[in-house]
Amino acid sequence: MAGREVFDEEEIREVVDVLKRKVLFRYGFDKEREGIYKVKEFEDKFKEYIGSKYALGVSSGSAALKVAIESLNLPKGKEIITQCFTFVATIEAIEESGFKPVLCEIDESLNMDISDLERKITKDTCAIIPVNMMGCSGKIDKIVEIARSKNLPVVEDNCQSTGASYFGKKLGTFGDIGCFSFDYVKVMTTGEGGMLITDNEEIYKQAEYYHDHGHPHLKDIGRGEEKRMRKGFNFRMNELQGALGIVQLKKLPEIIKKQKENKKKIEEEIKNLNGIVFRNIPDTEGEIATFLTFYLPTKEKAEKFKEKMKNLGVNPAILNYWHFIANIEIAGGDFPKSKDILERMISIEIKTIMKEEEISKIIDVIRKVAKEVI
Description:
A hairpin with a 2-residue loop joins strand 6 (165-166) and strand 7 (169-170). By secondary structure, the protein is of the alpha/beta class. It starts with 8 loop residues before the first helix and ends with a helix. It is built from 13 helices and twelve strands. The protein has helices spanning 9-21, 30-33, 38-50, 61-71, 89-96, 114-120, 140-149, 201-210, 239-270, 299-311, 320-331, 336-343, 356-373, and strands at residues 54-58, 79-83, 100-104, 125-129, 155-157, 165-166, 169-170, 177-181, 194-198, 277-278, 291-295, 345-349.
């Protein structure tokens, strides 16, 4: 499920094009770079693809979350709600920005549980960060509706679902801000890198200032002469990342198409196995098929299933520590519903490029193990 699988001469040409001009910094040096700004070009193409008014390239998906939270200028020390199952960066960004992370349960879509979200909102809640996990969303429209009714901003963590949509609308565009990751194992990659998108001009300006030490990036004024607009730090994207992003974004629709085809081939062959229940995906057309996920009846059966799969050469995804246990270590809480779901979960990464023999092996192994375990 990674853009690195489709690296070819296009990425090489774009990177060499930057190196020939010897300007890796995204701002200034107009004469040396011959007026070419790769990060700006990537931002423009990305916001057109995703359907937002503004886009800001940053150094990572984690940086996108941090910059997004800071751009809202919320009262420090308040609570921000997110879900217990997400990569630890979501919780780290909340904590690093000076807020208390409050976690809620997930449902069988592996996304935020609506009923638990409503229970967790208090007078100290200042924002909600729903996470679109593993290539698709849950009830993102309902989450935003709840947030709007409470006058709470929504930062949509879409770092694991770039290119996915929910009934025709791209994920990342439902909240006030959307965050994306382009690290090395994502569906499109710039090695590291991320993007923040919004339709709100003031949020965009605050994010732009914050991600570059408070610089306003004024035309015809040198960086050394600019007035600092606010507190900030360095989360800039560089021109090499921007160059890679331009090519990878162009390839993204085909990457997603191939992943969906590969997933469907496996799913069709195992869907009638007794004891297997597939992950609930509210909009199957809109997912990007980065994983094939199903549940078994018990934790014990799931553990045996994964062990036997691994012994036969098909490795299940390992997600529980960095996406669940580490979050609880930081934020605390007890999540019996989520724990049960995750302990019974089997996930297999879907690659963009898969030979028929590889697909057949996965199908054969799942069938074989199902007969022995379920």
